[in-house]
């Protein structure tokens, strides 16, 4: 029997060729489309991913902070004096935490500017994001919030409250990460290494924290720095009266958490305050994470004059600080006496 063959008319050949071209076109169109999409995403960062990495970095840094403290291997030394004359300390806890946090974020997002309180030449190219997004972030935060990498500044405080850390007053110690976009705080993470609790917020998206119920406080309970409490105490008393309760505490991160509604399991040793006031220079890695948390919850962190703080450029905030949530921030500002931090 003669072998069977397939014969196509000229029209059939033309149709077959057109179908083939169509298949090839659709195949290549899909490849080109996906490559164009990838090209458009180059240089952009999904803020949901950056939030997850920020939480992971803060926790990793906190593990180092706790380990060094428990091994009592601080190797503390002075970095110099602050403008107010306070001793700035550096410990192995600061350094080890910095190495974990800085390398993890920098390796994951190499195009993003990362500013840390500490400086160290140790490079860990193996530090990599686990790709894990915590359940509460996955449930509350939408993905696809892309912003240009060049608009982002990340502020890291590898160990907030180093003075208290050396004194073993560990309740004040935190590790912090803040993400600012075009100078505005958008993501804040404050981790407490010695309780394991992590507070986070993404402005306009969600948080695992809650503000306290709105209330009117007169006079407010103010929380201030332990390191130069004499100056700020007189300022607070002048603003709100001599009967004002003043809490002296270490660490800007801790002070912000004292303004919030903490989970019941974490409230045992936490102070509770209505306003956080600072009257001298303060670094942006100390306050940016707290600013994002408060903003996400309807609160405010401003200079003493009520100005917004720009979280880009120089690391120094020279305008002092007033932070609150759940109270009338404008009314608080109106009570404050004139003060120039640059002259004190």
From TrEMBL:
GO biological process: phosphatidylinositol phosphate biosynthetic process
Record keyword Transmembrane helix present: yes
GO CC, one annotated term: membrane
Catalytic activity field: a myo-inositol phosphate + H2O = myo-inositol + phosphate
Keywords associated with the record: Hydrolase, Magnesium, Membrane, Metal-binding, Transmembrane, Transmembrane helix
InterPro entries in alphabetical order: CysQ/Inositol_MonoPase, Inositol_monophosphatase-like, Inositol_monophosphatase_CS
Record's subcellular location: Membrane
Pathway participation: Polyol metabolism; myo-inositol biosynthesis; myo-inositol from D-glucose 6-phosphate: step 2/2
Pfam families: Inositol_P (PF00459)
Enzyme's top EC category: hydrolase
Domain of life: Eukaryota
Binding site for Mg(2+): 117, 157, 159-160, 286
TM annotation in the entry: 12-32
Topology in membrane: Single-pass membrane protein
Cofactor(s) essential for the protein: Mg(2+)
Entry similarity comment: Belongs to the inositol monophosphatase superfamily.
Protein name, per record: inositol-phosphate phosphatase
Lineage, opening ranks: Eukaryota, Metazoa, Chordata, Craniata, Vertebrata
């Amino acid at each position: 029997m003669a072998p069977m063959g397939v014969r196509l008319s000229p029209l059939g050949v033309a149709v077959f060729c057109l179908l083939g071209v169509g298949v090839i076109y659709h195949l290549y169109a899909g490849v080109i489309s996906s490559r164009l999409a990838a090209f458009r995403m180059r240089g952009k960062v999904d803020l949901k991913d950056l939030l997850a990495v920020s939480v992971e970095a803060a926790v990793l840094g906190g593990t180092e902070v706790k380990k060094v403290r428990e091994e009592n291997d601080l190797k503390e030394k002075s970095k110099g004096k602050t403008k107010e004359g306070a001793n700035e300390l550096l410990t192995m806890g600061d350094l080890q935490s910095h190495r974990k946090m800085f390398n993890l974020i920098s390796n994951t997002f190499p195009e993003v500017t990362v500013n840390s309180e500490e400086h160290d030449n140790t490079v860990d190219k193996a530090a990599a994001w686990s790709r894990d997004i915590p359940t509460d972030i996955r449930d509350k935060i939408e993905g696809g919030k892309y912003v240009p990498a060049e608009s982002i500044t990340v502020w890291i405080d590898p160990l907030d409250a180093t003075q208290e850390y050396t004194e073993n007053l560990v309740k004040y110690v935190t590790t912090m990460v803040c993400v600012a976009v075009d100078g505005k705080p958008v993501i804040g993470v404050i981790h407490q290494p010695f309780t394991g609790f992590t507070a986070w917020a993404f402005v306009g998206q969600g948080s695992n924290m809650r503000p306290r119920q709105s209330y009117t406080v007169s006079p407010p309970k103010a929380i201030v720095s332990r390191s130069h409490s004499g100056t700020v105490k007189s300022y607070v008393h002048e603003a709100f009266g001599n009967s004002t309760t003043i809490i002296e505490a270490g660490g800007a991160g801790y002070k912000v958490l004292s303004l919030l509604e903490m989970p019941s399991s974490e409230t045992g040793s936490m102070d509770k305050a209505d306003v956080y006031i600072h009257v001298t220079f303060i670094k942006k890695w100390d306050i940016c994470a707290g600013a994002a948390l408060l903003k996400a919850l309807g609160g405010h962190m401003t200079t003493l004059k009520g100005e917004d703080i720009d979280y880009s450029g120089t690391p120094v905030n020279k305008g002092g600080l007033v932070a609150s949530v759940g109270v009338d921030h404008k009314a608080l500002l109106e009570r404050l006496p004139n003060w120039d931090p640059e002259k004190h």
